[in-house]
Amino acid sequence: MYLFRKTAAVLCAASMLSLTACSDSKIVKTYDKQVELKFSWWGNDSRNKYTIEAIEKFEELHPEIKVDMSYSEWSGYEMRNKVQMISDTEADVMQINFGWLSAYSQDGTGYYDINKLSEQIDLSNFEQSALDYGIKGDALNAVPIAMNTQTVYINKTIYDKYGLDVPKTWDDLFKAAAVMSADGIYPMSAASKSLWLYLITYTEQARGKSFQTDSGELNFNAEDFTEMFTFYKRLVDEKVLPQAEHYERLSLDDEEYAGCVAWVSDAANYFGSAIEKGRTIVIADYTTIDGGSQGAGWYAKPATMYAVSKDTEHPKEAGMLLDFLLNSSEMAELQGVEKGIPLSKSAQSAIQSQMNGLQYDASQKMNGVEMRQLTAVMEDGDLIDEFFTASNEVLFDKATVEETANIFYNTAKGHFEK
User: Fold this and answer.
1) 226 in the same domain as 161
2) What per-residue confidence (pLDDT) applies to 1?
């Protein structure tokens, strides 16, 4: 359900007074008129709670600014954001997905140029390589909060039960399925987008080529997609993982899945229940064909980003809020590593004591591993849906894998030509 909340700043006296005591120990300036900013984000109950608390702290520090907060779960937020961007009604400051930069600001004019807010935002906290993710055209359209990649999580308690080592290769997964399937347990699982990217990983390793060229063109051909469809069918047929449409996140809690491929930023959401039960959840190596190069076929992107509306009437105040969200100790301490290890140096310094846990381990796994940059077309929801719809033709023997791959190749080319 989409939620909307207005949080007034703490005002402690009539507006005719310039200073007044709010308590025995705190003095807060009052204002005849406040600047109102809109701030939007997506998240679960836990993320919403700490973000609201952080904004209330911001308002205490800046009583001249009132922040109207809007938030929802991902699916509702994504749809609402699309409508708002088309109608130019987006929030002044907003959490955005990396792919939206290409969707709404291909030339850099779809969002505000954050470089113009350098007096409000301490960009020196970020390496230029991190800021580069937010540049479109000549404009810094967004700043990444943390980095993200698909990660292999394993319920080691289940694997130990069957006397199996934590899997490193695709063959390890098939060997685990041969043992676990008799008890109705899948050694691996993945939601549709994660599974799509996981299949690309395998196909890149097997075919020795990338999904797209450095210039952004489709690099897979019909033969490559034949490999991809064939391997997916084998994974499903041999009970390595459930068919995409049959995936249920709650099956992780019920221990019907012994592993999962998911984002770094989703670690706590996917495995909190298992950890509470005392299960040992570990970060496995990035799956390879022969235990070779850990980065081959794997992609990274910003976990999430913050952007400012190109139409904001209050860029200075929007910059102040953005700096608070990215760099302040108040926000950092509340957020911790829930979105991954923060890229801001000052945020990292504020949460040294929180640098632990599953999400931290998943973030650390990325360090020192060279991965390609995930592109917007690789996260195209329509393309992903079309792949799994086509896959069903193969899974249920309605068409040959070659016929399906040829048709899907033409479909994929169409998405690259948009």
Assistant:
1) yes
2) 39
Enter the tokens of residue 79.
């749809």
Tell me the two tokens of residue 333.
């301490």
41-63 mean pLDDT: 96
Q: Where are the alpha helices (DSSP H) in 181-220?
A: 192-207
Is residue 347 in some structural domain?
no
pLDDT tens-digit map of 77-113:
999 999 999 999 999 999 999 989 988 999 999 999 9
Residue 346 lies in a domain: no
Q: Which residues of 266-293 are buried (b: 16+ CB within 10 A; e: fewer)?
A: bbbbbbeebeeeeeebebbbbbbeeeee
Q: CA angle, 407 as apex, 403 and 409 as ends, to 5°?
A: 115
* Ramachandran region, residue 397 (left: φ > 0; alpha: ψ -120 to 50; beta: rest): left
Mean pLDDT, the chain, as a whole number? 90
Number of other residues whose CB lies within 10 A of the CB of residue 350: 20
Domain of 159? 148-300+366-416
Of 100, 125, 153, nearest to 377 (Cα)? Answer: 100
Cβ contact 27:19 at 8 Å: yes
Which residues, other chains included, contact 388 with Cβ-Cβ below 8 Å and sequence gap of 6+? 192, 196, 244, 245
330 lies in some domain: yes
pLDDT single digits (tens) 270-290: 888 999 999 999 999 999 998
Q: List 284's β-bridge partners, or say none.
A: none
Q: Residue 32: its pLDDT value, please?
A: 64
Vertex 347: Cα angle to 345 and 352 (nearest 5): 95
Distance CA 152, CA 137 (A): 35
- pLDDT number for residue 31: 55
